[in-house]
Design goal:
There is one protein chain. The chain has 411 residues and is α+β, with helices and mostly antiparallel strands. The chain has 2 domains: 208 residues, FAD/NAD(P)-binding domain; 156 residues, 2-Layer Sandwich (D-Amino Acid Oxidase, Chain A, domain 2). Flavin-adenine dinucleotide binds next to helix 2, strand 2, strand 3, strand 14 and helix 9.
Length: 411
């Protein structure tokens, strides 16, 4: 790097400039939140991103407020968000009426926007909207660049900057790097951050299905041997987003059968709760491998979203947790700037990691625990059924709802 290069980079990348690696839903939300707080932000997106056109995300009230604060909710098309007014959870223990849920939360009597327990949105709609907002934001620069590595100190700036490495061997100096590069985070590996990975041999098949009965804004989930199945409401009353977790062997088998046979398997698994399945969209299988960084920070680097904690999708909470990361980090960076602190300082990043530990640990343990309890063997599922009946008691139900809504941790 020549002196004049360095001087230009210094002006562009230092001060309060923040570098975000990863143009997924987390990286985009972080860029918008920080740019709204008047930080100059550079986002690095892979040249070959995986466009997620199939999946939907269920966002809880706290995540909804966060997306509203950064202008995303107002920018979305009117029917992009499908409200959920009722959540039904059941298992496959023997009982007289298979349609009787073991646990329910029901706000359907007041069905209006304020009474929604959560909302479902297509990942593609959300990502496209945020991408468009990034493109026009004067505080955000988007670079189509694959980041290949990280160094804790930039050779030209010593402690004042870490470095991002690019495929064409550039070293970009940065006073703060936010790694939002997903479950297999390259930056996490380069920073030598240890992870706990729990591979229980499960995959989730995702698709969009059409049903003969309307979904009535119900989010429905059933715990089966091998993993839970969920149907989440979509804008069309007769369509739902399917997430069906099972053993890898079963997923491999079910990915190969034709739509007719898949529909029969689904009718059986769903007990025809919303009638018969008449149409099935494209199917895709995702490996379910919860991965959790032991401590999500390194020198001038912080992991957020799936790079820090890819949790089991059974509770639909992964992105909600990511938005909570963004909110907490943005708040701390604003306070640091106000107090004249270095925004990449060790003290600040460790404070952030410490503040996020209770919520991330609670959600990781809850989702892993539920999966273990339900997914392996009949006896365990009966036990779980008893637990769920207990959980239907008002106090426990309201505690679970507080955790799931993202409100328990004071957001
Ligand atoms: C089946 C399933 C259902 C789910 N349902 C829900 C739900 O209902 N509600 C919910 O809250 N969560 C849900 N989740 C979790 C949620 O999808 C994730 O938590 C969320 O998408 C994570 O986003 P992310 O941006 O952190 O990571 P990713 O989506 O993995 O994005 C990472 C981005 O980084 C880019 N990237 C990677 N490496 C580099 C690099 N070296 N250089 C530059 N760019 C790079 C990638 O191209 C990608 O764009 C679900 C997950 C699954 C698997």
């Amino acid at each position: 790097m020549t002196k004049s290069d360095r001087d230009t980079t210094k002006a562009a990348d230092f001060g309060h400039g923040i570098h975000i690696v990863g143009g997924g839903l987390t990286g985009y939300a972080a860029a918008l939140a920080l740019a709204e707080a008047d930080f100059p932000v550079t986002v690095y997106q892979s040249r070959t991103p995986n466009k997620d056109t199939l999946r939907t995300t269920t966002i809880n009230p706290s995540a909804y407020d966060m997306l509203k604060d950064i202008g995303v909710i107002a920018a979305l098309p009117a029917d992009a968000l499908t409200p959920i007014y009722q959540i039904m959870v059941t298992d496959d223990a023997d009982r007289d009426n298979t349609h009787d849920p073991v646990m329910t939360w029901d706000n359907s009597a007041q069905a209006n926007q304020g009474a929604a327990l959560a909302w479902v949105i297509g990942n593609a709609v959300l990502s496209d909207m945020m991408e468009a907002m990034l493109a026009t934001h004067d505080r955000i620069t988007v670079c189509q660049t694959d980041i290949t590595g990280y160094q804790s100190r930039h050779p030209d700036y010593h402690h004042a900057a870490a470095a991002l490495m690019t495929a064409d061997d550039r070293l970009i100096p940065a006073s703060l790097i936010i790694a939002a590069d997903g479950r297999n985070s390259k930056l996490r590996q380069a920073a030598d951050i240890r992870v706990i990975t729990r591979n229980l041999g499960q995959s989730a098949i995702v698709s969009t299905v059409t049903m003969t009965e309307p979904h009535r804004h119900i989010a429905w989930q059933k715990f089966l041997a091998g993993g839970p199945i969920a149907l989440m409401p979509m804008p069309d009353m007769h369509m739902a987003s399917l997430v069906w977790s099972m053993t890898n062997e079963d997923a491999e088998r079910l990915m190969k059968v034709n739509d007719e046979r898949f529909a029969i398997a689904l009718d059986d698994a769903t007990d025809l709760t919303f009638g018969r399945i008449t149409d099935i969209g494209v199917r895709q299988a995702f490996a379910v491998i919860p991965t959790h960084a032991l401590w999500p920070v390194a020198q001038r680097l912080v992991l957020i979203g799936d790079a820090a904690h890819a949790i089991n999708p059974l509770a639909g909470q992964g992105y909600n947790l990511a938005l909570a990361d963004v909110k907490a980090l943005a708040r701390m960076l604003m306070a640091a700037r106000r107090d004249g602190m270095d925004i990449g300082s060790r003290q600040l990043l460790h404070r952030y990691a410490f503040s996020r530990t209770p919520e991330i640990a609670t959600m990781t343990l809850a989702t892993d625990g539920l999966n273990m309890l339900f997914s392996f063997g009949k006896r365990r599922r009966r036990l779980a059924g008893m637990g769920m009946a207990l959980a239907n008691l008002q106090g426990i139900k309201s505690f679970a709802l507080h955790v799931a809504s993202g409100r328990l941790f004071g957001r």
